[in-house]
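tool=predict chain=A
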Amino acid sequence: MTAFETINKGYNHVFQADQLSIGVVVPIENYAQHSVPTMKRHLENVQLVEQLGFKALWIRDVPLHVPAFGDAGQTFDPFTYLGYLAGRTNEITLGVASIALPLHHPVHVAKSAATIDQLSGGRFILGVASGDRYEEYPAMGIDYEKRGDLFRASFAYIRKAQDNFPKLAPNVYGSLNGKVDILPKPVASRIPILITGHSRQTLEWNAQNGDGWMYYPSNLAQQKDTISAWRSLFGATEKYNKPFLQPLYIDLQADDDFLPQAIHLGFRIGANHLIDYLNHLKEIGVNHVAINLRFNTRGIEKTLEHLATMVLPHFHRNRHKT
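tool=predict ok
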């Protein structure tokens, strides 16, 4: 595989060619019975995740609580929260997965993203999506059916905003004439942008414009085909490949030999079988797995420590010491 591009500290901390790294989705707690998490001990859990050697934290963008959807996310504004975490962590990558671009003006997204990147010393990754919670769109006066067009317009604006005194032809969000600037700028040449799902675009468009692709879990054969389709868009003449990542819900059992049982987008599983499964993901080309513990039935601290002891050493060469 062709190596991945060097973009910023956070991107290259998480993504290495032919390797798989492991991160954690916030909130880091069990809230299987409720759509709204408590966010108790959220900072302590975040800092423990970093101390134990996980590579990334992933924060979601959920502007409105839609009870029918069943998950309010971490409830905090993602950019405000990541700005806070930037000052309370040191090395772990800070990612947002993902900002629903049609629901935000791109000036605010670009400015917030670059601010977090600066505050964290280049540890930020921006995940973007077209959004999938219908109820949020009429609440903001936005046409749900136009979210694909809005996504492209916003994406173009955010990319241009990272230039000095950018110029951008008029689109639905406005125009940039080179006479005003958007500050701050990223630590490196740009903010890495990962596209979630298809975001109402073709896979070819996503491969050309994004710095990586986040897609949903599926059985190994289907996921292999999905990744093969992605990899086929980066030919031998391409200078760089682009990473593939996915989430995974787990309910980690105390018995390391506990056989996998399917749960929503993941497994109730023992550590030994989890290691085997992650190795299969690595073999088919997954570069990063974001673990979600929403349905985990054991104590969160014990689970994180169990993962760090049993699982991380198989995938992270230099694990932090506790």
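The mean pLDDT is 95. The domain at 9-314 is CATH 3.20.20.30 (TIM Barrel).
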